[in-house]
């Protein structure tokens, strides 16, 4: 469906009217025969027909094209009243910007944001309604911290609510303690495994060092034996020299 022609200020060219609903074009599409339609209107028509509703020429969805640029510009420049005119909005703006205005219009009817409330209220009066809405959330005036969401909640038992809150806190604390305990145990196990691994590596290094020292001692003993033999040979040579 198009925009109600009664909302527009001044003359509206016949070419800017939908050939089906006869209102001003909304999301316009054009057929090869140059007749223009609202997108919703022509799509609905083509579900049951395969021709143009004006001249009965055959058309298909694939043949529909956007409106000519000059016609689109003429359409966007049309001036019209806000749809909330009946509620007091006196804004008149171009068709190109009307959607943006109406999304933010202070006279728009919007639902109350409180769960359970079915009241539709003008955007400009929403804050005042929320302050007195029977479905508004507020804390218990007795100080128990309970959030009152409806009129029935005003009769709640503060002691029972505090007990429930205490049990929840206790459960949360127990869970957190258990989580911390498991985390610490996991860390200790990890450190223990790391220390065992390091101890094994150190033990292997010690054994390797012992093996190296043993080999060095054996080499030293061999060198000392060779040295003694050389000394004896030198002493024997010295004796032979003296005899000569």
Description:
By secondary structure, the protein is mainly alpha-helical. The protein has a domain at 5-104: Zinc/RING finger domain, C3HC4 (zinc finger) (Herpes Virus-1, 2-Layer Sandwich). Helices cover 50% and strands 10% of the residues. Strands 2-1-3 form a 3-stranded antiparallel beta sheet. A hairpin with a 7-residue loop joins strand 8 and strand 9. The protein is elongated. The model has no long low-confidence stretch (mean pLDDT 87).
> What form results from the Cα inertia axes?
elongated
CATH homology-level superfamily of the domain at 5-104: Zinc/RING finger domain, C3HC4 (zinc finger)
Query: N- to C-terminal separation?
Result: 141 Å
What is the helix content? 40-55%
Strand and helix order: EEHEHEEHEEHEEH
Order of adjacent strands in the largest pleated sheet: 2-1-3
Find the structural class using helix and strand composition: mainly alpha
Report the major sheet: 3 strands, antiparallel
* Rg calc: 48 Å
Strand runs, count: 9
């Amino acid at each position: 469906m198009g925009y109600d022609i009664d909302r527009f200020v001044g003359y509206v060219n016949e070419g800017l009217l939908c050939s089906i609903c006869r209102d001003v074009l909304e999301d316009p599409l054009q057929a090869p025969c140059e007749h223009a339609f609202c997108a919703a209107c022509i799509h609905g028509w083509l579900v049951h027909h395969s021709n143009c509703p004006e001249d009965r020429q055959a058309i298909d969805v694939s043949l529909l094209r956007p409106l000519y640029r000059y016609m689109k510009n003429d359409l966007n420049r049309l001036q019209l009243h806000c749809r909330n005119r009946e509620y007091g909005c006196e804004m008149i703006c171009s068709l190109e910007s009307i959607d943006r205005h109406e999304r933010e219009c202070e006279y728009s009817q919007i639902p109350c944001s409180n769960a359970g409330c079915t009241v539709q209220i003008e955007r400009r009066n929403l804050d005042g309604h929320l302050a007195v809405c029977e479905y508004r959330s507020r804390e218990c005036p007795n100080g128990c911290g309970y959030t009152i969401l409806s009129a029935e909640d005003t009769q709640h038992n503060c002691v029972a609510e505090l007990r429930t809150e205490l049990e929840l806190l206790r459960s949360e604390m127990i869970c957190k303690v258990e989580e911390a305990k498991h985390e610490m145990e996991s860390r200790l196990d990890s450190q223990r495994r790391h220390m065992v691994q390091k101890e094994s590596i150190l033990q292997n290094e010690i054994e390797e060092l012992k093996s190296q020292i043993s080999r060095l001692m054996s080499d030293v003993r061999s060198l000392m034996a060779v040295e003694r033999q050389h000394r004896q040979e030198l002493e024997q040579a010295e004796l032979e020299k003296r005899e000569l």
